[in-house]
Amino acid sequence: MNKAMINNIKSTFKSKFSTEPLMVFSPGRINIIGEHTDYNDGFVFPAAIDKGIVAAIQKSDAEISTAFAVDMNEGIEFFPDSIQPLHTEHWGNYVIGVVSEIQKKGIKIENFDVVFGGDIPGGAGLSSSAALENSIVVGLNETFNLGLSREEMIYISQKAEHNFAGVNCGIMDQYASMFGIENHALLLDCRSIEAKPFKIDFHDYELILINTNVKHSLSDSAYNDRRSVCESISKMLNIKALRDATESDLLTIKDQVSDEDYQKVLYVVQENQRAVDAGAAMLADDLEKLGELIFASHEGLSKQYKVSCDELDFLVDCAKESDQVIGARMMGGGFGGCTINLVSKTGSKLFQEAVTKAYKNKFNNDCSIYAVSLSNGTGLI
Ligand code: GAF
C-alpha cells in the first residue's frame, strides 16, 4: 500500500477540518478472463490490486457536506438529502451517487466531510470508479454505524454507477474491489455472487499490464448498447440472461437478428465458457491452456463483440508475435485502457522493451507497463 499517499490524504483532511478521520483503502481490479459476462449473469475472474483509492472521512457539524479530490485539487459541497447528479463525467457523481443510493434505502445520512486520492492510473480500465464508490460506502457505513452488509454495499456502489455516472455496469468491479483476497483471483458467479478463490502462482510466468494510455470517447454509450443487445436477445430466447443460453439455442434466433448482434451474443456465450474453462485450467496448473483462452477472449472482444481499438489490438498482436508471452487480451470495458499479459519471467524485460518501442513507432505515443500484486478488498486502514 502506498504509505506516502495515505499520509498525504490524512494530513490534507486534518489541515482542512482539524479532526481525526476514519481512513479507508479500496483497491482497483484486474480481470484474468470473463469480459462483458458479468451483466449476463455469467462468470468473471477478477482480482483486487495494490493500487486504489484512499479516503479520509468524518462526521461534520456544518450545515453542508463536502468532498475533496486531492488529485484534482477540487472540491464539491452538497446536502445529503437533496442530491442531483452532476454532469456525466464529474468525479463527484461517485461520491454523491453512493450517498443518494443509501438514502433511497430509507437510511438517513447526516453531514460529513471526505477527502480522497488514489494511485490507479486514470482511464486505464482498472476500476478507479468502483474503488471510489466502495471507499465511500464503507466509510459511511462505519462512520454512521449503518449496519450495511458488504454485499448490500457493492449493490449500492453499482447503482451509483448506473444512476449517477450513466454506465449500466455489471457487478464485477465493485465485487472484486470489495472482496479481493491477497495473492488470489476470484472466479465469481455473477448470478449467485459466490466466488471461488484461486491462489495465484504462475510459476515461471507473471502478469503484466500494458496501458495504451488512450480512452476513446463513446465507450460508455457503446457499453450500454452492448448490454441492451444482450438483454433484448435474452428476451427473444425467453431466458433470464445469456448465461442460460447455449450456442445451439442461439441458432434458433439467428435469422431474426442482424449478423452483428448474433456475433455479439455468441461472443458472450463463448466467453462465459472460457471463464469456466480458465478455472479448470488453473486447477490443473495448465498455463498453456489458460494462455490460449486469454488470446481467444481478445479475438472475440475485438472481432465479435467489437469493443477493442487499434491500440489494444496492436499490443495483443505484439504479444502473439513474442515467444515470451503465452496469453494477452484487452481488459475491462474496452475502447482503450490496458491489456493483461501472461509473460515468462525471464523474457519479460525483453518483451517490455520491444513492445514499448514498437508502440511508440506505431502510434507516436507511449504505453505504460505495470506489474501487479493482488491485494485484499476494501477495508479500514
Ligand atoms: C466494466 C464494467 F464496469 C464491468 O461491470 C464489466 O462489465 C466490464 O466493464 C467488462 O467485463 O469494467
UniProtKB/TrEMBL annotation:
<keyword id="KW-0299">Galactose metabolism</keyword>
<keyword id="KW-0067">ATP-binding</keyword>
<dbReference type="GO" id="GO:0046872">
    <property type="term" value="F:metal ion binding"/>
</dbReference>
<keyword id="KW-0808">Transferase</keyword>
<dbReference type="InterPro" id="IPR036554">
    <property type="entry name" value="GHMP_kinase_C_sf"/>
</dbReference>
<dbReference type="Pfam" id="PF08544">
    <property type="entry name" value="GHMP_kinases_C"/>
</dbReference>
<feature type="domain" description="GHMP kinase N-terminal">
    <location>
        <begin position="93"/>
        <end position="180"/>
    </location>
</feature>
<feature type="domain" description="GHMP kinase C-terminal">
    <location>
        <begin position="281"/>
        <end position="361"/>
    </location>
</feature>
<keyword id="KW-0119">Carbohydrate metabolism</keyword>
<dbReference type="InterPro" id="IPR000705">
    <property type="entry name" value="Galactokinase"/>
</dbReference>
<dbReference type="InterPro" id="IPR013750">
    <property type="entry name" value="GHMP_kinase_C_dom"/>
</dbReference>
<dbReference type="InterPro" id="IPR020568">
    <property type="entry name" value="Ribosomal_Su5_D2-typ_SF"/>
</dbReference>
<dbReference type="GO" id="GO:0004335">
    <property type="term" value="F:galactokinase activity"/>
</dbReference>
<protein>
    <recommendedName>
        <fullName>Galactokinase</fullName>
        <ecNumber>2.7.1.6</ecNumber>
    </recommendedName>
</protein>
<comment type="similarity">
    <text>Belongs to the GHMP kinase family. GalK subfamily.</text>
</comment>
<keyword id="KW-0418">Kinase</keyword>
<keyword id="KW-0479">Metal-binding</keyword>
<dbReference type="InterPro" id="IPR019741">
    <property type="entry name" value="Galactokinase_CS"/>
</dbReference>
<keyword id="KW-0460">Magnesium</keyword>
<feature type="domain" description="Galactokinase N-terminal">
    <location>
        <begin position="12"/>
        <end position="59"/>
    </location>
</feature>
<dbReference type="GO" id="GO:0005829">
    <property type="term" value="C:cytosol"/>
</dbReference>
<dbReference type="InterPro" id="IPR014721">
    <property type="entry name" value="Ribsml_uS5_D2-typ_fold_subgr"/>
</dbReference>
<dbReference type="InterPro" id="IPR006204">
    <property type="entry name" value="GHMP_kinase_N_dom"/>
</dbReference>
<dbReference type="Pfam" id="PF00288">
    <property type="entry name" value="GHMP_kinases_N"/>
</dbReference>
<dbReference type="InterPro" id="IPR019539">
    <property type="entry name" value="GalKase_N"/>
</dbReference>
<dbReference type="Pfam" id="PF10509">
    <property type="entry name" value="GalKase_gal_bdg"/>
</dbReference>
<dbReference type="GO" id="GO:0006012">
    <property type="term" value="P:galactose metabolic process"/>
</dbReference>
<keyword id="KW-0547">Nucleotide-binding</keyword>
<dbReference type="GO" id="GO:0005524">
    <property type="term" value="F:ATP binding"/>
</dbReference>
<dbReference type="InterPro" id="IPR006206">
    <property type="entry name" value="Mevalonate/galactokinase"/>
</dbReference>
<keyword id="KW-0963">Cytoplasm</keyword>
<dbReference type="InterPro" id="IPR006203">
    <property type="entry name" value="GHMP_knse_ATP-bd_CS"/>
</dbReference>
